[in-house]
Write the C-alpha cells for this entry.
Amino acid sequence: MEVKVMQDILGQNDAVAGALRQHLAAAGVYTLNLLGSPGAGKTSLLERTLAVLSGEMRIAVIEGDLFTTKDADRIAKTGVSVVQINTSGGCHLDAPMVEKALTDERLKIPGIDLLIIENVGNLVCPAEFDVGEDEKAVVLSVTEGNDKPMKYPLIFKESALTVINKVDLAPYTDFDVAAAREDIQTIHPGALVLPLSCRTGEGVEDWFAWLRARVKAKREGAGKDD
Amino acid sequence: MEVKVMQDILGQNDAVAGALRQHLAAAGVYTLNLLGSPGAGKTSLLERTLAVLSGEMRIAVIEGDLFTTKDADRIAKTGVSVVQINTSGGCHLDAPMVEKALTDERLKIPGIDLLIIENVGNLVCPAEFDVGEDEKAVVLSVTEGNDKPMKYPLIFKESALTVINKVDLAPYTDFDVAAAREDIQTIHPGALVLPLSCRTGEGVEDWFAWLRARVKAKREGAGKDD
C-alpha cells in the first residue's frame, strides 16, 4: 500500500517536473536544485554566490523550509529575488510546490538566467523528488564526517556536483577530503567534487566558474541573447 | 489521499510502538530514541557513553542506517551488543523495524537496563515516528548553526533533552549557545539542554548523570533488583 502510493506520488511529481523543465528550458533558465544536511552551508554558499554573480547574470532563488522564512530573509538582503516555500513540516520540496512558487511575480521568468532552488535541509528525502531542475548539487560540510557519502548514497548519486564546505574547519576534524572524493566518485563516476569554504572564500572561484559555464551553455542552447 | 495514508501508517506504527513500550517497561528497560542530523555526532556520543557506562549497567544498542553497517561496526568495537536496522533508503526508523530488531538474540531483553536506538541521520522525519521509546533525545552540533531549532521545531519539541555537541569547535563558528537554549526552551518548555564535546569530553559527565538517573528510575519502577 505504502509502496503503491509512493509510486503514484513520484509518478505525478515527475510529470509536473518534466513540464517545469521544458518551461524553464524554453526560457533559457539554468535551474539548480541545491541539497544538503541542515547546517551544511547551503544558504551561506548562496550568499557568497549572489554577492559575486548577481552582477554578472540575472538570478532568482526559491527557498524551501519547513516553517520559517529565516533563509529567504538572508537571501532577500542580497537584493536578489527570492520566493519562500514552506512545506509545513514536510521533509522535501516537490515539483508542484516549485510550480506554484514560479507563479510568483517576483521571479520574472523569462528574464532569469540562473534559478537556484534551495531544498529542505535533509540528506535523504529530497534526493527522491525531481523538482524540474537541470541538475542537483549537494553541499557536504567537513564537520559531518567523510563517511556520509557511503551512508547516504542516493543524494550523491543524483548530484552532478558535491561541494565540500567548511574546509577552514578541516584541521579541527578528522575529515579526509581524498577519501570523501573517492567515495563520491565510486557512487557517481564523473561527479565533480569542489572543496571550499564559504567563511574564508577559499575555493569558491571554482564553484562560480562551474555555475557560469552551466548558465552560458543553457543560454546558448536556448538561442538567448547575452 | 496522501494525508489519509500517512494517518493510517502513523496509526499502525503507534499501536506497535505502544506494545513495545509495555514490553520494555515490564522488563525494566529504559529506552532512548537518539536523533539528529547526519554528522551531528550521535555515534561518537554513543562511543563515549558506552566506554564509561557499560561498566555500570547492561546496555544494548540498535543502529538505524539506510544501507551500511558503519555505525554498528563502531559500536560493536566497544563490546556492547548491537543490532543493525537497514532501512533500504528509508528516512526514519519505525516501530515494526524496532520490533523485529528486538527478536535478535543478541539483545537479550530482559537482562538489559538501557537500550539506545540510534535513528537515521535526519532532523525531520524520525521525529514523527514513535518507536516504543521512553524518551527522545536530539544531538545538535555547533557547526550546524543555532538557527536549527526554530527551523526544525518538531524534533526539539519531541525531545526531552538536546545535546549540543562539538562545543570544542564553537570558537571557530558563530554558534550562540544561549540563543539555541532559549529557542529550544521556547519550543519545548522544560527541555534540558546539555552542551558537550564528544571529542574533548567536556560536559559529558552531565549526560552520563542524566542517563544514570533515567535508568535508575526505570529499574525502581519495574521493581528490578540492582
Remarks:
- Chain B touches chain A through 38 residues (CB under 8 Å).
- The first strand of chain B starts at residue 30 and ends at 36.
- Residues 92 and 126 of chain B are 5 Å apart (CA to CA).
- Chain B has a mean pLDDT of 95.
